[in-house]
Amino acid sequence: MAKNGYHNRIELLQGTLDMLILKTLQWGEQHGYGISLAIRAASGDVLQVETGSLYPALHRLERAGWVSAEWKKSDSNQRAKFYKITTLGKKQLAADYGRWERMVATIEGIMSAEERAI
Amino acid sequence: MSLFSGRRKDLMDEIESHLQMATADRVAAGATPENARRDAGSEFGNVPLVIDVTRERWGWMRMEQLAQDLRYAWRTLKRDRGFATIAVLILALGIGANIVVFSVVNTILLRPLPFKNPQQLVWLAAGHDGGGLSVVTYRADAYEAFRDHNHSFDEITGFSPFYAYSDFKLTDYGAPQPVAGVWVLGNFFQTLGVKPLLGRNFTEEESVKGGPSAVMLSYPYWQSHFNGDMSIVGRAITLDGSQVTVAGVLPPSFDFGSIFAPGTKKDVFRVLHIEDVLQVGHILSLIGRLKPGVTSTQAQAEASVLFPQLRDASKSNDWMYDADTVITGLKDHVNRQLRRPLLILWCAVGLVLLIVCVNLSNLLLARAMARSKEFAMRTALGANRMRLIRQLLTESLVLSLLGTLFGLAIAFAVLTYLAHQGSVSLPLLSTVRMDGNTLSWTLAIALFASLLFGVVPAIKMSGGNLQEVLKDSGHGTSAGRKQDRMRSILVITEIVLTCVLLVGAGLLMRSFLNVLNVDLGFQPSHTFTLRVSYNAPTDAQRGPVLEEMLRRVSEIPGVESASFSDALPLTHNRSWTLKAKGRSYPRDAHQDVFVSVVSPGFFNTMGMRLIDGRDFAWTDTPTSRPVIIINEATARRDWPGESPIGKLATGIGNSDTMVIGVVANIHESSIETAPNPEIYVPVTQSGDTSGSELVVRSGLPIEALGPSLMRTLRSMNPGQPTTSLVPLQNIVDRSISPRRFFAVLVGIFAAFGLLLASLGIYGVISYSVSRQTQEIGIRMALGATRERVQMGVISKTLRLALIGTAVGTGTSFAVAKAIRSMLFGTTPTDPMTFVGMIVLLIGVALLAGYLPARRASRIDPVKAIRSS
Fold this sequence. Notes:
The complex is a heterodimer. By secondary structure, chain A is an alpha+beta fold. Chain A has one domain (5-117): Winged helix-like DNA-binding domain superfamily/Winged helix DNA-binding domain (Arc Repressor Mutant, subunit A, Orthogonal Bundle). Chain A is built from four helices and three strands, in the order H-E-H-H-E-E-H. A three-stranded antiparallel sheet of chain A has the order 1-3-2. Chain A is globular. The termini of chain A are far apart. Chain B has five domains: 5-59, no CATH class; 61-116 and 337-471, no CATH class; 118-335, no CATH class; 486-519 and 729-868, no CATH class; 534-720, no CATH class. Helix content of chain B is 54%, strand content 14%. Chain B has 28 helices and 24 strands. In chain B, strand 20 (648-650) and strand 21 form a beta hairpin. Chain B is elongated, with a radius of gyration of 37 Å. Chain B starts with a helix and ends with a helix.
C-alpha cells in the first residue's frame, strides 16, 4: 500500500527532526509555531518544518517523556501550548547528537574517499 | 461524544493558536488580516490531515477509527434501506438456521448430560442388537451378582424400561388420573448425582423388600398436579391403590424422558424392590458410575470376564445374553444413532451460510458499481487503501451483526417451539436452548460471515484505478467486464452449493416418502387407542369382563370394532423365547419372539391380515387348550416349508401352546427394519400383560368419540382414569419423526438455497442487461429481432446454470455417498432424484434469467442509443 506524503517525511526526518526540536527547546520553552520559526531562522530559511511532521513529532516526544507541555500566555498575550525539555529529553539530545556526529563523520569519510579515488 | 474529544479539542486549540500567531506575525509585517489568515492557513497545510497523523501518535486511533467507521457504516446503510433490509433478512435467515442447528447439535452431541461428572457414567446393554428390550435388559439376579463382584464401578443402578408396567393410577386427588411412572432402583438418583429440589433421596430402608414404598415427583408434574405444594413432601399418595410416600421433588433440570425415553414425559419415579422382581426375568436397564481413573474399556474387559463366570456360578439357564455385556458411555448411548444425521444437518446448514455469504458478496459487488465514484473521491481526498478496506469490512460487520440479532430472534422462536412440542422423539430435544456455547458460536459465525462476504467486494472496490473508475461509466470497459466475471463466478458457486443441498434434500425426502409408503401391515387411519383399566381379580374373570367391555364399546354408534391389546406396535416391546416342539435347535440360537397379549378381534380392528387358521375366540379360556397366533416371520423361522397350524410350540407359558393362526407381518418395532418374529397370546388365557390398551376403529372424529367412550368405560369401571384418545396414526408419526425432522429441515435449507441462487442469477443477468442497454439498442437498430435478443440473454443464463449444475452434480455424487446410511429404499445415486433436482435447478435459473431477458427484448433502440 502506498503511504501518503506526510508519512514519508516523518519517517525520513524522524530522528533528525526530534533532535532539532530538542535542541531548539534547550534555549527555553517554546510553542509549536515558535519552534518552526526558530528552526527556519537558525537554518537560514533553508529548513522548513512541515506542520504535518512537527505536531506528530511533538506529541510523540511528549508521549516518550522527553518534553512536557503546558498551556500559557505568550509575550504577545496569545494563549499557546508551550513545550519544555525534560531531563530525560536532555539525555536523549546528547545521545542523538553524538550519533549524528558519528554519522556525519562516517558519511563525510565515504564521500571524500570517493573524490580521492577519482 | 467520543472518549477522545478532550485531547482532540486540545490539539485543535493548539493548531488554532499556531494559526493565530502566524496570522499576527503577517499582520505585523504589513499584510491585511484576510490575506494574513489565508497565507497562514495555506502555509500550515491540511488541518484535518495534520490532526489525523498527530492523533495516530496517541495510539488510540484504531479504536476511534472503528467508532467512526461504525457510525459511517450505519449512516450508509440507513441511506440505502432497500439493500440493507434484503441483506439483513437473508443473513438473519441464514444465521438463524445455523443457530438453531447448532443449538440442537450442542444439546444432543456436545453438551454433557445434566448429571454429576457425566463422563463417568456408562450404559450397560446385554446381548445382541435387534432383539428388542427383553434382550438388552438384565435379570435382577444378574444385576445383583455383577454389582457385588465388580471392581470397576463405584455404583451401578437401573430402571425398568417396560414403562407400561409403571403406568400408575393416582386416586386420592380428585378424579382418578393416569400417572406415567418409572420403576427405578433405590440408588438411581444418587448414582446419577441428581439432588432432589425438595425432600430427600430414597433411603436404604425404602430400597429393600418390605420397606415403605416411596416415590419421587418430577418438577413439571409437581407443578401441574400438586400446584407446587411444598407440603406434599413426606405425605403419602395413592398409586394403584397402595400408599406411597412422596420422598421428594426432582429439580427442573432432570428430564428422564428426554434422555432415556425420547418423546415421552415421566411424572413419578418409584422405588423398585429388587427382591420382588428376582423371578420376573429381564427387566432392568443398567447405568454404572465408573470408579475415578477407570475407563469404560477397562470396565468392558472386566465385564467380559466376570459376567460369564457369574452366570456359570448361578447355574441359571435364564441369563440368556446378560453375560454378553456391551459397555458404552451413557452420552454415546443416548446419541448413538444421531451423531451422523446431526453432523450432516450441521454441514447442510453450513452450506446455507456459504450460499448466503456468496449471495451477499454478489449484492455488495453490485453496490460497488454504484459506489465506485464515492470511493474514488475518498481516495483522491487522501484515504489510503487499507482504510477503505477497513471501512467496507466494517459495513459488512454491521450488516452481519444486525443479521445475527434478527437471526437470534428467529432461532429463539424456533427453539422454543422445538423444545415444547413433544412429537419429535429425539433425545434431549426438550432441553434445547441457547447457552454460552451457542452465543460464542453465533458470534464466531457472524464474524466469519462478515469477513467471507465482505472481503472480495472490499478488495475489488478499493482497488479500482482512480482514473479508470472516474472515467468508466459502465459501457463494456475492462473494469466493468472484470466485475461481471467475478459476479458470474460467485453465481456459479452459489448454483454448485445449491445443487449439493438440493440433491441431498431430494434423497432424504425420497427416503422419507419411501418410509411413509412402507406397508405397515396394519391400518392406522380411523383407529384410536386408549389406556384402560378393568377389574378382573382372577384369570377366569378377565375374559368375561373384557368381553363385556368390548361389547359395550362396540355398541357406541359409529364404532366399527373394538378390541384389547397389552402393547401397540412401534411403542414398547418385550420378547420371549419360542421353539417348535420336537425340532432341534443349535445351542446358541436366538429364538426371541415379540409378544402381544390380545383379545379376539384385535387383528380385525387393527386392519391386519389373518393369512391362515382362525382368530382367537372368547371360548379360548384358561381351562381350554392354550393357543397362540404367530406371524409369517415366526412361521418361516420355526416351521419352514410346512403349515404351522395345529403345531405345538414351547416356551410360551407353562405348557405347550398350539398354533391356531398365522397373520401377515407388521412392522412391530421399527418401520425401517425388516419385521421380526412375533406371536400373539389370547388375553383370555394369559394374564401376563405388559399394559392394557383399548383399540377402537371408528369413522367418528376424535372429539365426538372421546366423551362417549369415556362414559361407557366409567359405567363399567368408575375407577377408569381420565385418559385421552390417541390416534394410532400419532404413534406411527412419532416413530418416523426423527426422519421427518431431518428431511424437513434439509428441505427447508435447500429451498432457501434455491431462492438465494435464483436471486443471485437474477441480479447478475439483470445487471449485465442494464450495462449492455446501449449495445442491445444498437443491435436492435441494426435488425436483431426481439426473440434474438431474448435468446441471447437466456443463453447466458443457461451457460451459468449449466456450468453450476455440472460441477454441482459431480460434487453431489461425493456428498450423497456420505449420507448413504441415512437413506431408505433409495441409492445415493438415485437417478430420479438427480435428474429431478437438476431439472428443478435449471428451470428456476431460466425463470430468474427470463425476467431480465424480457426486459432486454423490450428495450426501445431509439431511447437506448440516445440515453448517454
